[in-house]
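Subject: for your reference before the review

Hello V.,

The reviewers asked for a structural picture of the protein, and I figured it would be easier to keep everything in one thread rather than splitting it across files. Below is the amino acid sequence we used in the manuscript, unchanged from the supplementary table.
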Amino acid sequence: MFRRLLIPLILVLALGTAPARAATADWGAPGPYATAVEVGAVNTLYFPRDIAGSDRRHPVIVWGNGTGGAPLVYRDLLLQWASHGFIVSAANTPMSNLGISMRAGIDALTRLDADPSSIFHGKVDLTRIGASGHSQGGAAAIVVGADSRVDSILPIQPGPLADIDDVHGPAFLMAGQNDSIVWPALVRAFYNDADHIPAIYGEVRGADHFTVVGDPGPFAAPTTAWWRFQLMDDPQARALFYGPDCGICVDRGTWSDVRRNALVPR
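And here is what came back from the structure prediction:
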């Protein structure tokens, strides 16, 4: 009888003294901010709804659409980022490759940040800017990555008309395993050429070229984590990409291929 009571007691004590494990963030879940959308002539803004009363400055992500696309097509993904505290400036153009409207979005937010009558006055973190986009817009993100104001890029299934040699910040290049429009090999070519910057290649298992459209599905969590890491210095998000226990490196459920170049900190 005493033995039967003693064993559960030992187990309780052992469990009670075991080190607590850090909770794993659900990057695909909406963030803490309610969101709003403001459609302009050149760019559409997705941002925290109560930004005027915010006690902080919010990092910026500029976005480029795929060929023939509009920000509305990617609304769910852009609102996901806004819910995590980012100001997303999406170019209102179906032909984004040159990145002109994306750069104009940075210029516009610079003016709004300086305008006392704007809800964005003093709320835009112009020292933390990322560039992203899909397909042709992914190529545009690479083009805009040459801008000295842009800290990091996240091209999603980027088209070929860009030169990553001009990019100066870290890059996360995403491909779709079943993409028959922008083949994974084309995205890997950008990765292979990015030997002057920290670069990561991630191939989403089972994804085709349009998986990110509408409900972004498997693209929501890793893209959110990338921006939380790059533009907010979130240590949990960093561990998904950098370090010896790189989260995406061991997640074979989401990724069919992950590569990190020699400049990515181990």
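For the response letter, the relevant points are probably these. The chain has eight helices and nine strands. The chain has one domain: 31-260.

Happy to draft the paragraph if you're swamped.

O.
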